[in-house]
Amino acid sequence: MISAELKEQYYEALVAKDSEYEGLFYVGVKTTGVFCRPTCPARKPKFENCEFYETAQQALLASYRPCQRCRPLSHPNQVSDVVRVLVEAVENHPEKRWKGQDFKALSIDESTARRQFKKRFGMTFVEYARARRMGLALKNIRSGRTVIDAQLSTGYESGSGFRDAFSRIMGAAPTQVDEQNVLKASWIDTRLGPMMAVADEKALYLLEFVDRRGLEREVERLRKRTKSAIVPGVTEPIRSIERELAQYFEGTLTVFHTPLFWLGTPFQKSVWEQLIAIPPGETRSYQDIANALGKPTACRAVAQANGANQLAIVIPCHRVINASGELGGYGGGLTRKNWLLTHEKQAPE
């Protein structure tokens, strides 16, 4: 039973189209007979015409039909047909430089492609295709091909243009990549909204909600600290965490096994070890963790290390609350933090 106070909170989130509430509730609209997700773009109903449900199944059982605009039975931010077709086209010909007639051949409007890719990936389609093309160039260079071969294979006639574009995306000139790592970035749909995963072929480096404030700075900091190129793609650790996240949200998994790369100071790593040691369904305060480390006066440093965690859910910083019992902060939003804690308490042993 959803309380009156929570209904008011949900209605405010509905009006604001707050993505933090994705997967937490669905709203049935009495006047239309449809039910929607919190971020539905349709005109908002009056509060008295809303009924709120915790699951889509409850809304269906109440005789509401799914909205055709926000598609509440699909994943939040599910890939549109336009995005899917273009991503497949890029994978089929990653070296291609896209022009106006290429979009027309697929019956896709350029401005639509730009807008949908910006919303989905945080970059326009042209930027996405360029990043994929540059990733291919980097692979060619690392496999022994000359810079000029890589330049021509990616469609650049000007050497300076190729080097400038390469540097903007990869963070290094093509002649400086011999010792450089390559990290792949991929988007993973979850019940609470899409997440970004960044990994190499061995370990996961970053896992964050896409709408987390400051995510762009986190990715840029990761790229600089690892001296890596970050390009769209998938690796085995990304496939692994996608499988495990699905099991986690289904309530069938509580411990993650995907290999992790911890990019932090020795103190930060010691805090993250304490986070992983917190059993699912339980919480600790910053002071509890400081005491466990044998540094009872390091409460503030513990909080900073907790905030520096770039592996959301897997390193469970959401299990740390204030000593007063209040939730405290969380990069993914307090609504998600509360949902995660409640979810873990309900999970079977």
From TrEMBL:
UniProt-listed SMART domains: HTH_ARAC
InterPro entries: Ada-like_dom_sf (IPR035451), Ada_DNA_repair_Zn-bd (IPR004026), Bifunct_regulatory_prot_Ada (IPR016221), HTH_AraC (IPR018060), MethylDNA_cys_MeTrfase_AS (IPR001497), MethylDNA_cys_MeTrfase_DNA-bd (IPR014048), MethylDNA_cys_MeTrfase_DNAb (IPR036217), MGMT_N_sf (IPR036631)
Catalyses which reaction(s): a 6-O-methyl-2'-deoxyguanosine in DNA + L-cysteinyl-[protein] = S-methyl-L-cysteinyl-[protein] + a 2'-deoxyguanosine in DNA; a 4-O-methyl-thymidine in DNA + L-cysteinyl-[protein] = a thymidine in DNA + S-methyl-L-cysteinyl-[protein]
Keyword presence, DNA repair: yes
Keywords on record: Activator, DNA damage, DNA repair, Methyltransferase, Transferase
Top-level division of the source organism's lineage: Bacteria
Domain HTH araC/xylS-type: 104-180
NCBIfam families: ogt
Protein's name according to its UniProt entry: Bifunctional transcriptional activator/DNA repair protein Ada
Native source organism of the sequence: Paenibacillus taichungensis
Lineage, opening ranks: Bacteria, Bacillati, Bacillota, Bacilli, Bacillales
